[in-house]
Design goal:
Blueprint: H1 2-24, H2 39-48, H3 52-59, E1 80-87, E2 90-98, E3 104-114, E4 120-126, H4 128-131, E5 136-139, H5 166-170, H6 173-178, H7 207-215, H8 218-224, E6 225-228, H9 236-241, H10 249-257, H11 270-280, H12 290-302, H13 306-309, E7 323-326, E8 329-332, H14 340-344, E9 348-350, E10 353-355, E11 357-358, H15 364-370, E12 381-382, H16 388-394, H17 406-459
Parallel strand pairs: 11-12
Antiparallel strand pairs: 1-2, 2-3, 3-4, 4-5, 5-6, 7-8, 9-10
């Protein structure tokens, strides 16, 4: 019974360890030293380079974060040399590392073959000691896939495949360079203990950190390149593998002894590698932050409704003024077709009440008199059809919290009261003159009657 319990516990521990291994090591994991030189990144760098010298320099640049190899175990990055070997119309470009003064190890090899029609095919083949057999990376050519393909499954996450042709490959800058008539076959001038002055070795990263950085590049890698299962260059074994390939027994012994296992011992550093990618590539989409980007876009679309609510006929500057708020109340501005000044003054608010402008065609005096109403009553002003001067005079300055200025109202009221005052004064003068004339006539008549009476009395 005790033996059965112990066996069950051991089985559970093994299953748990297998599950943890599956979580910590993704599909790209090989468990070989080649994990620390991403051949997809190397192919991308080759496509972007212009010369083999520039390609070698960028490949060994710490800022490119492609080379993470430490094959001799000295805890320093190895310098990768680039050597070109020509076989007719085929360039065999070898990536090689010197482990010490006596031992050399090939890392990978490009085979670049040009055909008579000018097209070019290229493959990047990882050395079998570092990557296993038939680890081949190439562009996704516009051709039918081989039905017998049994490559390593990779989680592509709905990657959009970008296919290319042999003629497009021939247009790569570096491929055009090596097929120039005056091209001189390139061999790196550096070797063990003698390296360029601009290069200084650095401590290698743990694999999870290195993978975490390249993790966000995999959608791009898999869009343009894929894993293939056989060599396209027919003389690969005869020309390169049997005649040129350099292999160090040190690497094979260290693999058997588990000398490279320590580099896989920091799974928690994968997040740090992803954070490094985000820091060095701001603004680029990341696989780890896809949901955050979507949510941010959603928030931005909700916070900008006015652009969708603006009519199609407005000018480029009008949507920015389509809706404002005065005293926490919306103010709808005039429709399209008005000029800038008119759209700025198309609607205002006086004491939290809307101000409606009058129709076009009113003259300046009418618009000036129309703005003379009381503070809490609607004020009629000139619309956008009037010219700039009329609309400028028709709108009194209104504060967001105070009523309209009293001065125009006082001036207009004074004008109204002063205008009828003159006719009233003239009419009263006329009445007084008429009354005085009437009194004079009455006195004359009375005097005439008195004189007549006196004459009659005298005659009697």
């Amino acid at each position: 019974m005790k033996k059965f319990i112990i066996t069950s516990i051991l089985a559970a521990l093994v299953a748990l360890g297998t599950t943890v291994m599956a979580q910590d090591y993704p599909d790209e994991y090989l468990g070989l030293p080649g994990d620390n030189l991403n051949l997809y990144a190397v192919m991308k760098l080759f496509q972007e380079s212009e010369t083999l010298e520039g390609f070698e320099r960028s490949l060994n640049d710490e800022n490119s974060r492609i080379n993470n190899l430490d094959l001799n175990g000295d805890n320093l990055i190895d310098y990768i040399m680039v050597q070109d070997y020509v076989d007719g119309d085929v360039h065999t470009i070898v990536l090689r590392v010197e482990l010490n003064r006596n031992e050399t190890q090939d890392v990978a090899v490009f085979t670049v073959q040009r055909f008579r029609n000018g097209s070019v095919q290229i493959q990047l083949i990882g050395d079998e000691a570092l990557y296993g057999r038939n680890y081949i990376v190439e562009p996704i050519y516009d051709e039918t896939q081989n039905p017998g393909y049994t490559g390593r499954p990779v989680n592509r996450e709905n990657i959009t495949v970008v296919r290319t042709t042999y003629y497009e490959v021939a247009a790569w800058p570096l491929i055009r360079f090596i097929f120039l008539p005056n091209y001189v076959m390139w061999h790196s001038s550096w070797y063990w203990g003698y390296y360029p002055s601009y290069w200084h070795p650095w401590r290698p990263y743990y694999w999870h950190y290195y993978y975490g950085y390249h993790y966000n590049w995999y959608p791009h890698y898999y869009s343009h390149y894929h894993h293939w299962q056989h060599h396209r260059y027919t003389r690969y074994n005869d020309f390169y593998y049997s005649g040129i390939r350099a292999h160090s027994p040190m690497v094979s012994n260290r693999i058997k002894e588990g000398g490279y296992r320590n580099t896989y011992s920091r799974p928690e550093q994968r997040r740090d590698g992803e954070a490094l990618y985000t820091k060095l590539n701001p603004g680029q989409n990341t696989r780890a932050q896809d949901n955050t980007a979507i949510n941010s876009q959603g928030r931005r679309s909700v916070s900008q409704p006015t652009r969708e609510q603006t009519s199609a006929g407005t000018s480029s500057g009008t949507p920015r003024r389509s809706t404002t708020t005065v005293n926490d109340r919306p103010v709808t501005k005039s429709s399209a077709g008005q000029n800038t000044n008119a759209s700025r003054r198309s609607t205002t608010t006086v004491n939290n009440r809307p101000v409606t402008k009058s129709s076009a065609g009113q003259n300046t005096d009418a618009s000036r008199r129309s703005s003379a109403t009381a503070t809490n009553r609607p004020v009629s002003q000139a619309s956008s059809g009037q010219n700039a001067d009329a609309s400028r005079r028709s709108t009194p300055a209104v504060s967001n919290r105070t009523a309209s200025r009293p001065e125009p109202v006082q001036r207009s009221e004074t004008a109204r009261t002063s205008r009828p005052s003159t006719p009233r004064a003239s009419s009263s003068g006329q009445r007084s003159s008429r009354e005085s004339k009437a009194g004079t006539d009455t006195r004359k008549r009375e005097n005439a009657k008195g004189s007549a009476n006196e004459k009659s009395s005298r005659s009697r």
